[in-house]
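hey
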């Protein structure tokens, strides 16, 4: 991945020390994460600056906010090639509660009735993940 300063600047985010630290922590993630996950990984940083950073990165299309039905606000990295409003497929494990980003799987496009205009497409599959299904 490109260096954090460059990546953030490219997306219109001023690369401050806090933002760079948060970005380094989340940029390798292949699963969706919560504010608490980032907080636990960066114990020296206060919750509100982490929260503000995640919000900012979301506003600048670096992150997606996702609702996987667990009732927890989760975020994941944007890996969109073109339309940011069509996120990749997610798989939420009902055993461990992890939400995986299945970035190689395309969301099936649904033909909507006349007059219905889609804005955001989220696709969440619920089931048992590869780790839990082996137990
Ligand atoms: Zn995106
Ligand atoms: Zn699982
Ligand atoms: Zn994702």
């Amino acid at each position: 991945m490109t260096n954090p300063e460059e990546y953030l600047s490219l997306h219109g985010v001023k690369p401050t020390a806090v933002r760079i630290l948060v970005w380094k922590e989340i940029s390798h993630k292949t699963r969706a994460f919560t504010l608490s996950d980032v907080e636990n990984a960066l114990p020296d940083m206060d919750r509100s600056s982490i929260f503000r950073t995640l919000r900012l990165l979301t506003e600048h299309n670096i992150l997606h906010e996702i609702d996987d039905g667990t009732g927890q606000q989760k975020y994941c990295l944007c890996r969109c090639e073109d339309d940011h409003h069509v996120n990749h497929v997610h798989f939420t494990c009902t055993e461990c509660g992890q939400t995986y980003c299945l970035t190689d799987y395309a969301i099936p496009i649904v033909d909507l009735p006349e007059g219905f205009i889609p804005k955001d497409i989220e696709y969440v599959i619920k089931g048992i993940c590869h780790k839990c299904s082996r137990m």
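The chain has a mean pLDDT of 92. The pocket of zinc ion (ligand 3) is lined by residues 32, 76, 88, 90, 101 (CB under 6 Å).
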